[in-house]
Design goal:
The protein has 176 residues and is mainly α. Helices cover 68% and strands 0% of the residues. About 12% of the residues have low confidence.
Length: 176
């Protein structure tokens, strides 16, 4: 980011290539429609570009970027009155709902896998927004507890609790 702020446009290309997938997944799992997710995703990167001269490496770049994404999502949720977002694209009729299977799987194993996925999706959707966000930042984006705390403006103990409770609820759903 420092190189980009100094005028190296290629540095931005490298940052974008490295982080676009995880940031988009984070945003898209936090909003109900792909169009909203794409809009917020673009706005996050625009804010990063606009802030390049103010960027100071007090934390990892990813922490700074996810703080921008988190703040923008919170603003978007408030504007739209959103709280929870479905994890899947549309339920059991959506082709993306079906987990990948091995051609040699028995039908009973496929049914068990589908049922476990449905329990997981339901449990994920039922997570409070703060637990859901912390879980996605940790598991999807690979951020540390300290980085999540910095990105969300929350204490580390609160983030640990959110991740722990989310993980426990999701494990319970899978074991169910």
């Amino acid at each position: 980011m420092l190189a980009f702020a100094a005028g190296d446009a290629g540095a931005f290309d490298r940052l974008y290539a490295r982080h676009r997938g995880t940031v988009f997944r984070f945003v898209s799992r936090s909003l109900p429609s792909r169009a909203d997710a794409e809009e917020v995703f673009q706005e996050v990167w625009m804010k990063a570009i606009e802030a390049r001269h103010r960027y100071e490496p007090r934390a990892k770049f990813t922490t700074w970027l996810y703080a921008i994404a988190h703040n923008h999502l919170v603003d978007t949720w408030r504007k739209k009155g959103l709280t929870l977002v479905p994890l899947d694209g549309g339920g059991e009729d959506d082709p993306a709902f079906d987990p990948p299977s091995d051609p040699g799987d028995e039908p009973f194993a496929q049914v068990a896998t589908r049922e476990a996925m449905a329990r997981f999706v339901a449990a994920f959707e039922a997570l409070p927004p703060a637990q859901r966000e912390a879980f996605v930042m940790k598991e999807e984006a690979g951020l540390s507890i300290a980085e999540i705390a910095a990105a969300t403006g929350t204490g580390e103990e609160a983030v640990k609790s959110r991740v722990r409770y989310a993980t426990a609820k999701l494990r319970e759903a899978l074991d169910g």
